[in-house]
Hints:
The complex is a heterodimer of chains A (171) and B (162).
Chain A: H1 2-6, H2 8-31, H3 33-43, H4 48-71, H5 75-98, H6 130-148
Chain B: H1 3-6, H2 16-36, E1 55-56, H3 58-66, E2 70-73, H4 77-82, E3 89-90, H5 96-109, E4 113-116, H6 124-134, E5 140-142, H7 145-151
Parallel strand pairs in B: 1-5, 2-3, 2-4, 4-5
Amino acid sequence: MSGLLRHPRAHLLLRLVLGGFFVFASLDKIASPAAFAKIVYQWQVIGPVPSNLVAVTLPWIELVAGLLLIAGVWKRESALVVALMLVVFIVAAGSVMARGIDVENCGCVSVAKGGPPAAWPPAWTKGVGWFLVSRNLVLLAASLVLVLVTPAWPGSPAPTPGANGPRSDAG
Amino acid sequence: MHWDRACYFRDMAVHWKRFILILVTGAAAGLAWNGASGRGFALGRSVLVQAGDELVEVADAGALLKRGALFLDARPRDFWRMSRIPGSLPLPEEEFDRAFAEAEPQLRRASGIVVYCSGFGCEASHIVARKLRERGFIAAILNEGLPAWQDAGLPVDTEPRS
């Protein structure tokens, strides 16, 4: 298991999946910022004006971090940004669920307004609920692997403390 | 397992300037896009408020209730059945035409009309007020809806209705 988490190809796969997901998730929100703002309001975590700022800036942070992950540039830092966003999403979703607020479309990847129920994808994949929290926990685990684990080919020596930057003893 | 092998992040090195730069670049791009793309919106007020919408704050709405204004509940009818501002009528957005026909005689007699729904994230009261305006009725929208009304300690009728 430890070898798998260190394997460079595993890191490449995680970066492409995470980065691709976040780029995809940002596009509809960037195209329709006002529609996304309405969805942020429905979460009722912060007031209208702070929600506006979140609606305008968050998708672009998702896009920048996602593109960096795909490109393999500033991998650890962009993965940390993604991890931070996922923690915020998980806490906010927990707050929405605890208060019993019904959010039909979480606004995670689409800002389409809730129309008549479609057969696919099922409604429970779009709203704020346990599916969303579980999916975000999986994505968070993936992003933390990219933050915390230094890739190394099997058989190569373990990374030497101090070999990877000024904060080599962090953690 | 030896500590060196067990601790994956022993050699972790996050460049915090890069981390901050990603956040700042994303936020700046978002603000620039909002200002220059033509798809943006005014950040200083609720995006639900459009030209022609008339908002009423909860304190003023309480005074309007005492003066006999008619309150309309734009939430789904089941919510109105459970609890409502005293004397309010159901006028749900999703069944507007039918509910409007039921409420029209009282709307014509009303000295003032206030529409509310379930908070600042709820658009239904805005939509219902606009539909009423199209039909010649001037209706104010209760800012931040029923939660603000309850927070202000104003009365709520919780007797179940059929």
